[in-house]
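Need a sequence for this fold. Nothing fancy.
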């Protein structure tokens, strides 16, 4: 038997799919939303007081290197720790768990985890266990560790990953394919064909190197691009590349804060909007980037506005329309779910959708008074406003407190951090002695 129904009573409800409500209720039965309306009357429910909150779909982080959580806020150091050759499975578990708990605390209910953690079964098992223990909804993009031969080892790793039995309905496997390189289109075709044989969505980084311009167009000409492909960053693509993205139906995930802080460049938001491509947003790496979607929304809208204001100051005619908050909040929810390959099961607040919801406090001084709810979420709120988080109808954050053993997660992360730091120092000393 399913448990009692849950009624979120009297909040400002942003469906981001249909009509928004200044005040309404949301009824959850099991893992699904069953009704959204003012004054819902029902019996045998657990009532959650949603007054002074915005009730909306949970954020969808469409690209994050979760295992890099041990490197959070590493500053502007270019330490080789980022390559993680000395992580052990227990370190990977700790890094993934603390990273996912941080995502939940920030109001993220779905995350695409670019998992490039190690070559053996123990590593992948550790990641799967951490995802299950966190309770978050996720897509696990099986990728190649950075220091390992890219294609041959990736194919071996993907075969190993697809052989796993993933029991959690909240976890979906995807292919974190090696970045396409000029002169290696035959290899890309083989890699992507393998992913498609297993029915996996393809996620891959593109456009990091200006010398690779035209490559996406070449992939399109060979009929390799399609709606089952998510391209990450896309910073240095050519106009013909962006045209190919649009015509192929491929999706794009932007990681604005991480990309800019690491030197990858500004997100090409206007090039996408000009072609009707609506991106999802992701955190990327937390080494020099905030781990929340509030920061990503503000980054992408600020960049687009600044770019257009510069065009106006330069006297350019026919300047495009400024991006508005209603579009940006969808990048972080509805569009993010589509970009991740999860369709409309998450990302919107509507009857029949999964009950992946968040409640954001509107009575805190950082946003009060509320002049426009969506504007408050995009421009004013931060993680301190996140009050409740539901995934599949289950509360993972209640009154701002995680429903998890946070002390254990912190202890594991501290131990892993010490181990990785010590191992890194030993490796550096060994290299210097050669």
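Here you go.
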């Amino acid at each position: 038997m399913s448990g009692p129904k849950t009624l979120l009573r009297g909040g400002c409800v942003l469906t981001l799919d249909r009509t928004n409500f200044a005040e309404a209720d949301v009824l959850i039965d099991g893992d699904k939303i069953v009704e959204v309306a003012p004054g819902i009357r029902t019996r045998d429910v657990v009532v959650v007081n949603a007054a002074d909150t915005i009730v909306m779909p949970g954020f969808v982080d469409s690209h994050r290197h979760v295992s890099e959580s041990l490197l959070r806020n590493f500053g502007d150091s270019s330490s080789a720790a980022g390559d993680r050759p000395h992580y052990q499975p227990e370190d990977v578990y700790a890094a993934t768990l603390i990273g996912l708990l941080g995502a939940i605390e920030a109001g993220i209910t779905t995350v695409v985890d670019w998992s490039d953690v190690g070559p053996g079964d123990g590593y992948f098992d550790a990641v799967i266990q951490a995802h299950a223990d966190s309770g978050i909804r996720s897509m696990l993009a099986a990728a190649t560790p950075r220091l390992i031969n890219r294609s041959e080892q990736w194919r071996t790793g993907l075969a190993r990953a697809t052989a796993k039995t993933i029991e959690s309905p909240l976890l979906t496997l995807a292919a974190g394919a090696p970045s396409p390189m000029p002169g290696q289109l035959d290899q890309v075709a083989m890699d992507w064909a393998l992913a498609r044989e297993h029915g996996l969505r393809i996620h891959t980084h593109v456009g990091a190197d200006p010398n690779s311009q035209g490559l996406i167009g070449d992939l399109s000409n060979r009929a390799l691009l399609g709606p089952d492909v998510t391209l990450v960053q896309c910073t240095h693509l050519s106009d013909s590349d962006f045209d190919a993205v649009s015509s192929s139906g491929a999706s794009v995930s932007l990681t604005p804060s991480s990309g800019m802080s690491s030197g990858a460049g500004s997100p090409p938001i206007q090039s996408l909007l000009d072609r009707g491509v609506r991106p999802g947003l992701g955190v990327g790496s937390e080494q020099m980037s905030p781990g929340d979607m509030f920061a990503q929304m503000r980054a992408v809208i600020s960049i687009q506005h600044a770019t257009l204001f510069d065009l106006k100051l330069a006297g350019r005619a026919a300047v495009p329309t400024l991006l508005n908050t209603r579009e940006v909040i969808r990048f972080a929810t509805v569009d993010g779910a589509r970009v991740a390959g999860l369709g409309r099961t998450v990302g919107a607040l509507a009857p029949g959708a999964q009950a992946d919801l968040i409640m954001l406090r509107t009575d805190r001084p950082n946003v009060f008074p509320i002049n426009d709810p969506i504007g408050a979420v995009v421009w004013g709120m931060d993680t301190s406003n996140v009050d409740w988080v539901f995934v599949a109808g289950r509360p993972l954050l209640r009154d701002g407190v995680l429903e998890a053993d946070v002390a254990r997660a912190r202890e594991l992360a501290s131990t892993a951090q010490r181990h990785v730091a010590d191992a890194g120092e030993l490796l550096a000393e060994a290299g210097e002695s050669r």
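For context: Residues 59-340 form a domain with the TIM Barrel fold (CATH 3.20.20.140).
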